[in-house]
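User: Reviewer 2 asked us to show a designed sequence for the structure in our supplementary figure. I'm pasting the structure tokens here. Could you produce the per-position amino acids so we can include them in the response letter?
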């Protein structure tokens, strides 16, 4: 099983794709667009848990909302992918 923690603040424009590739340790070519992201994630066979923190849907960009909808669509159509939002707090 693979677990990935994503910062929702990075889900604002196409720069997200480089961040996403690094977080998932994706090898090979992955085009910097949502269709390519969907295709690559659809080929993953192992369990994949995606946790997104600092999620604020009301203040997301249009592209950020598209990223979120794409991830939710993957979760609905792939039994091995789960998507959750989480809160992270710092303890001092």
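Assistant: Here is a per-position design you can include in the supplement:
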């Amino acid at each position: 099983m693979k677990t990935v923690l994503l910062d929702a603040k990075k889900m604002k424009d196409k720069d997200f794709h480089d961040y996403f590739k690094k977080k998932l340790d994706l090898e090979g070519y992955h085009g910097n667009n949502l269709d390519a992201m969907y295709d690559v994630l659809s080929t993953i066979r192992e369990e994949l848990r995606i946790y997104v923190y600092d999620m604020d849907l009301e203040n997301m960009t249009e592209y950020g909302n598209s990223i979120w909808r794409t991830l939710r669509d993957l979760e609905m159509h792939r039994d091995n992918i789960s998507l959750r939002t989480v809160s992270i707090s710092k303890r001092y």
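For the response letter, you might also mention the following. The chain has a mean pLDDT of 91. The first helix runs from residue 16 to 24.
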